Amino acid sequence: MQKAIVLGGYGLIGAASMRALRRAGFTVTGIGRSTSAALQSDPSADWLIRDIPAITIDEWRIHLAGVDVVVNASGALQDGARDDLTAIHVTALSRLTQAAAELPLRIVQISAAGVSAEASTAFFRSKAQGDAILCASALDWVVLRPTLVLAPDAYGGTALLRGASALPLLMPRIMPEAQVQTVYIGDLAEAVVAAAQGELPSRLICDLTEREARPFPELLQIIRCWQGWPAPRLHLRLPTPLITALGKAADVLGLLGWRSPLRSTALRALQDGITGNPDAWEDAGGRPCRSLAQTLALLPATRQERLFARSYFALPLAIATLALFWVFSGLITLFNPARAMAILSVRDVPNWTTNLSVFGGAVADLGLGFAILWRRWTRAAALGMLALSGAYLTGSLIVAPDLWADPLGPMLKVFPGMTLALMVWLMMEGR
User: Quick check: 81 pLDDT over 70?
Assistant: First the structure.
């Protein structure tokens, strides 16, 4: 039985490649740095949990023993707190090719349509650099360059596409000149299997894409119809400066670990167009990729699809709301502690307890408000908000039960915030 390794095995393309290779009879090992993401993707698969750029040449030689095919589906869109483009696209591939230089195996590189050394984004330039290293150093390789990949799962740009097309009542109109082509994840997975089984010639570079391109606003409209939503009441054209500002804000969030599809790299790539030429693929004997209409026919828009699309923007809105609420709650208390202390002092609470409760609570509020903005701590911060809110409610029952009967309902208003924190905790999921 042939053996395959898939780098980035729990990503959108990596997971599909692993499933397709197993169906084709390969023994498959996936590599990724997150145990939880790997087990969520496929708990029955064989996983090697490693940070791919950290794997040395000597370690690669150990992992590659007896391997027939390596599929590189790992990658990152933009530098950030969790990602280094040079490390993942260049360094890791350089070490892999050096380790495989004398081995009888094939490397299947999942690149991207439009990569070049002169591209407008670091993503495409680093991908092109990695492709060049592979082509110059490896003995047997195939480079597949898909356009926008559509799949039952939704990550990054395809998730944003679903969310934007599902906005109630309105349809954003951005970058009307941008041309987009798509490819069905099943076609891409089949191409990976064909390359792994030797059905494609060695040293082949080809785009995987449908033939027809369409303006991005038209693609949004088609996805909206596929999801089953009514026609929008308003088409809102977003000015370029606003889109640029959104990209810069998303870049800042990237420093906190958020891989937003609104980051400047994604927006620039969309502006340049996501297109390819399928001629090389078809000339090599590949079956023509499905059109957008054929792809959507294979991806029924279920209730889960619509719920995901409608909740896509609800999660960041909930996180931002909680952050503002808790940060301002802490700041207001610190700027005017006497008012908070008065609530406790009139009820004969000892001064040391009052000071500890007021200032300690304010600092805890600030800490949780800022922590929820950091991707790594979001779920923990949401749980902390639930716990601290529960402590506030319990303390009020002991010290100031009369506040529960206040006409403005200061204690009752804690419950919506707790519900929002619970929603964030439930909805957060790592890729």
Answer: no
Residue type at 288 in one-letter notation: P
Identify the domain containing residue 95 by its residue range: 3-312
Which SS3 state, helix, strand or coil, does residue 259 take?
coil
Residues 294, 340, single domain; the answer is no
Question: Higher confidence at residue 257 or residue 303?
Answer: 303
Task: Look at phi and psi of residue 136 and say left if phi exceeds 0, alpha if psi is from -120 to 50, else beta.
Answer: alpha
Type of residue numbered 134: L
End position of a domain, from candidates 261, 278, 312: 312
Alpha-carbon span 46 to 42, nearest angstrom: 9
Q: Report the share of the chain in percent with pLDDT over 70.
A: 94
Element of type H or E holding 29: strand 27-32
pLDDT of the residue at 94: 95
On whether both 332 and 252 belong to a single domain, the answer is no
Give the whole-angstrom CA distance, residue 266 versus residue 268. 5
- Helix 216-227, helix 303-311: angle, nearest 10: 130
Q: Which among 293, 312, 331 is the end of a domain?
A: 312
Q: What is the pLDDT of residue 347?
A: 63
Q: Look at residue 22 and give its three-state secondary structure.
A: helix
The answer, yes or no, to whether residue 400 has pLDDT greater than 80, is no
pLDDT tens for each residue of 329-357: 999 888 887 776 766 666 666 666 667 67
Backbone φ, ψ for residue 184 (5° rounding): -75, 135
Structure tokens at 307: 């719920």
Burial 223-248 (b: 16+ CB within 10 A, else e): bbebbebeebeeeeeeeeeebeebbe
CB 7 within 8 A of CB 52: yes
Q: Which residues are CB-neighbours of 377 under 8 A, at least 6 positions away?
A: 371
